[in-house]
Design brief:
The complex is a heterodimer. By secondary structure, chain A is mainly alpha-helical. Chain A has a single domain, classed as EF-hand (Recoverin, domain 1), CATH 1.10.238. A two-stranded antiparallel sheet of chain A has the order 1-2. A two-stranded antiparallel ribbon of chain A has the order 3-4. The N and C termini of chain A lie far apart (90 Å). By secondary structure, chain B is mainly α. Among the domains of chain B are: 116 residues, Potassium Channel Kv1.1, Chain A (2-Layer Sandwich); 128 residues, Four Helix Bundle (Hemerythrin (Met), subunit A) (Up-down Bundle), CATH 1.20.120; 119 residues, Helix Hairpins (Orthogonal Bundle). Chain B contains 24 helices and four strands. The chains are: A mainly alpha, B mainly alpha. Chains A and B meet through helix 1, helix 4, helix 5, helix 6 and helix 7 of A and helix 1 and helix 16 of B.
Chain lengths: 231, 633
């Protein structure tokens, strides 16, 4: 009854006091409740990576010493810690395509460059990829392109994979194009591609089909000159 | 443009491999890089500090000085570096901008110096990174405020031709500009004080008048107080109407706070006049009398401290709002708790939650009147928690308000100090500047003396007057001379100018000679440069300062410096005609005009020419009438 009510409130009051007291003790450091400070975790996250020596890189890639120097300076400027994670990669790539949405394609590129699949791109990965693309043989370049298209790296390009890639490429164009981009355009483009590439019409493109077809395609061969004077 | 990541462009181009197999048409031809320039180091020499960077680093931002071909103007071919005569400290952050793409503002730099450097190097300040942008903007705003303050001070100088209305408004806003305004200011202040005191004294109980108990003075001396009130209100009304008339934008004036205060101060009186002693409205009438106390806010025109306080409260509105809100929350919580805690105890004053509000407020603000106290244990515990938390909640926003007030107050103090120091500063600056302006005149004098002494072959003073002026100075003086020759006017110093202004203002100037002589213009307006006239007076005579004719005299200084030469001339006048003519030439050099004889007679001027003509005859005739001849300086 009335006394019960009062006792109830009294209990609450006393409880509150006790809780406050304990908390005060905790703040003054007298009671270690085993709190982990968040700052410790932050320390571990900054990773520094130093690339291999210049001589080794020179041996493994087809770049000259000077070219490697220039490449590394540009690389390190953007990524002082020595490795690129996907976010930074996407940011950098987006600066070249301000009008469109390049993050999907950048994601695929990142996976293609990141040969050891550890989620970050070191300078070696970067420069090996560039070496193949800029100084490699036609075969190597086409191989690399196939690797890019094959999202799950199973050796076959399916229509879905190709559609993803195509959509990513069209996304980079953005909205303001002429003629206006229609919903269907990527799919149609994929159909054309498959008609060209898929010789045995089994719905997937293998690496041999791909390389064969590209080598016989005049347009593609002519476009390879794109990589001649890049660096 | 992706200039910041230009180094990654090769990568982006290589990544285009992904597009080629799917493209239906061949790719366009890539641009050839003909100038296969190797990346080279550029040396930047900034006031002796050498900075080096790659060319490509600078090329990242092609619309700045360093990134464009504009820097070629600063290229020093001998040392193969780019030399900039600027501040190396500021340059460091500018070069870092090229390197990292982020511009930082160093805190110890003066804001205007930094701005100038940015403008020089063609970098817009908006690029400053987020880390430093706030600081930059704050300092820039402070600087602007300071400049605006100074400009406002300059506006105190009275522009000519103000209408009555503008003059009145200016007098109202800045009482120290004229005596009338000052008088008005003090009179209104006095009446405000009187009014407030009257209101206060009205309610004080005066002595009892025998049979009645103590009455407040207001009821005892009704007439006197009424007269006093009327007088004050009349003054306020007149003042308000005058302000309203003088305001440049009446609508804005009527919306301003001060005018609302004015209106609120005088309205109760008029309403009281209108309303009779009607029982229904007498309650409202009493309320209206309360508003009379707002007259005290009229003092804020007179006191800057009050204005600052008001401004502070306005600028801390959000903190005050937060304070109020958190207090309200706490009050409600604790009032509820206390009510339920004290519900059981008998004869408890906590009759309802709103009744508990009073207890909570009194406790949280640590007043503790003691008219309501909890009796139960729970009530006491919660009561103590309430008072502890009250201290905290109130103490939190108060320092923000205090610091705001302190900042604004100090700002104002600094403005006042600057204003006080300004006059002295300006006077000192003017003195030092006039020194350089007079350099030209001094050098002219010195040059003339030099020539004179050379002619007269006196050796003694030559060393004193050898030309110690630098090449720069002499070229500058030559330039000023050319100007003098072009415009047929001569530079004079401040004293002379003031003198001449006074003279021409005082005297009606009849001389209307058709010549190019400058005394025309000076007669017309006091502002043209006039030619000086050499005092052809006998050496000892000092220059009469205020009794000149239209022709002006050299200043006393000039005369004294020439007395020696004058006497020389006079002495040597007979010796050789050549010398004479030279002297004559020099005589007319400084001067300009012999007054033409067709000038309306002014006794001085008539008297002087004959005297002057004596040594200068050969020259005077050739000098024609009103030609100004400049010496061979």
């Amino acid at each position: 009854m009335l006394t019960m009510n009062l006792e109830g409130l009294e209990m609450i009051a006393v409880l509150m006091l006790v809780v406050l007291f304990v908390k005060a003790l905790g703040w003054f450091g007298l009671l270690e409740a085993g709190y982990d400070s968040v700052e410790d975790e932050l320390e571990l996250s900054t990773v520094r990576h130093r690339p291999e020596g210049l001589e080794q890189l020179e041996a493994r890639t087809r770049f000259s010493r000077k070219e490697l120097q220039i490449l590394y300076r540009g690389f390190k400027n953007e990524c002082p810690s020595g490795i690129v994670n996907e976010e930074t990669f996407k940011d950098i790539y987006a600066q070249f395509f301000p009008q469109g949405e390049s993050s999907t394609y950048a994601h695929f590129l990142f996976n293609a460059f990141d040969t050891d699949h550890n989620g970050s791109l070191s300078f070696e990965d970067f420069v090996m990829g560039l070496s193949i693309l800029l100084r490699g043989t036609i075969q190597e370049k086409l191989n690399w392109a196939f690797n890019l298209y094959d999202i799950n790296k199973d050796g076959y390009i399916t229509k879905e994979e190709m559609l993803d890639i195509m959509k990513a490429i069209y996304d980079m164009m953005g909205k303001c194009t002429y003629p206006i981009l229609k919903e269907d355009t990527p799919r149609q483009h994929v159909e054309v591609f498959f008609q060209k590439m898929d010789k045995n019409k089994d719905g997937v493109v293998t690496i041999d089909e791909f390389i064969d077809c590209c080598q016989n395609d005049e347009n593609i061969m002519r476009s390879m000159h794109l990589f001649e004077n890049v660096l | 443009m992706a200039t910041g990541v230009a180094a990654w462009l090769p990568f982006a181009r290589a990544a285009a491999i992904g597009w080629m197999p799917v493209a239906n048409s061949p790719m366009p031809v890539a641009p050839m890089d003909h100038s296969k320039r190797q990346d080279e180091l550029i040396m930047l020499n900034v006031s002796g500090h050498r900075f080096q960077t790659w060319r490509t680093t600078l090329d990242r931002y092609p619309d700045t000085l360093l990134g464009s071909s504009e820097k070629d103007f600063f290229y020093n071919a001998e040392t193969k570096e780019y030399f900039f005569d600027r501040d190396p400290e500021a340059f460091r952050s500018i070069l870092n901008f090229y390197r990292t793409g982020k511009l930082h503002y160093p805190r110890n730099q003066c804001i205007s110096a930094y701005d100038e450097e940015l403008i020089f190097f063609g970098i817009i300040p908006e690029i400053i990174g987020d880390c430093c942008y706030e600081e930059y903007k704050d300092r820039k705003r402070e600087n602007l405020e300071r400049l605006q303050d100074d400009q406002e001070e300059n506006r105190d100088t009275k522009p000519p031709n103000m209408s009555v209305r503008e003059a009145m408004w200016r007098a109202f806003e800045n009482p120290h500009t004229s005596t009338m305004a000052l008088v008005f200011y003090y009179v209104t202040g006095f009446f405000i004080a009187i009014s407030v005191i009257t209101n206060v004294v009205e309610t004080v109980p005066c002595g009892s008048t025998g049979n009645q108990k103590d009455m407040p003075c207001g009821e005892r001396y009704t007439v006197a107080f009424f007269c006093m009130d009327t007088a004050c209100v009349m003054i306020f009304t007149v003042e308000y109407l005058m302000r309203l008339f003088a305001a440049p934008s009446r609508y804005r004036f009527m919306r301003s706070v001060m005018s609302i205060i004015d209106v609120v101060a005088i309205l109760p009186y008029y309403i009281g006049l209108v309303m009779t002693d009607n029982e229904d409205v007498s309650g409202a009438f009493v309320t209206l009398r309360v508003f009379r106390v707002f007259r005290i806010f009229k003092f804020s025109r007179h006191s800057q401290g009050l204005r600052i306080l008001g401004y502070t409260l306005k600028s801390c509105a959000s903190e005050l709002g937060f304070l109020l809100f958190s207090l309200t929350m706490a009050i409600i919580i604790f009032a509820t708790v206390m009510f339920y805690a004290e519900k059981g105890s008998s004869s408890s004053k906590f009759t309802s939650i709103p009744a508990s509000f009073w207890y909570t407020i009194v406790t949280m603000t640590t007043l503790g009147y003691g008219d309501m106290v909890p009796k139960t244990i729970a009530g006491k515990i919660f009561g103590s928690i309430c008072s502890l938390s009250g201290v905290l909640v109130i103490a939190l926003p108060v320092p923000v308000i205090v610091s705001n007030f302190s900042r604004i107050y100090h700002q104002n103090q600094r403005a006042d100090k600057r204003r006080a120091q300004k006059k002295a500063r300006l006077a000192r600056i003017r003195i030092s500047k006039s020194g350089s302006a007079n350099a030209f005149l001094h050098s002219k004098r010195n040059g003339l003396l030099n020539e004179l002494l050379e002619l007269t072959d006196t050796e003694e003073d030559e060393q004193k007057l050898t030309k110690c002026t630098s090449l720069l100075e002499s070229q500058h003086h030559h330039l000023l001379n050319c100007l003098e020759k072009t415009t047929a006017h001569v530079f004079v110093d401040e004293q002379m100018y003031q003198q001449n202004c006074l003279e021409t203002a005082l005297q009606t100037c009849p001389s209307r000679s058709p010549s190019i002589s400058t005394h025309d213009s000076s007669a017309g307006s006091c502002c043209g440069c006039r030619a000086k006239r050499n005092a052809p007076l006998p050496s000892g005579r000092p220059v009469p300062t205020h009794t000149q004719g239209p022709l002006q005299e050299l200043s006393a200084l000039h005369i004294q410096s020439h007395t020696a030469s004058r006497s020389n001339l006079n002495r040597k006048a007979e010796e050789s005609g050549r010398l004479n003519s030279k002297g004559g030439r020099i005589t007319t050099a400084i001067i300009s005009l012999p007054s033409p004889p067709d000038l309306t007679p002014d006794s001085d001027s008539l008297r002087r020419p004959p005297q002057r003509r004596q040594p200068a005859d050969p020259a005077a005739s050739s000098a024609g009438i009103n030609i100004i001849r400049v010496s061979a300086l």
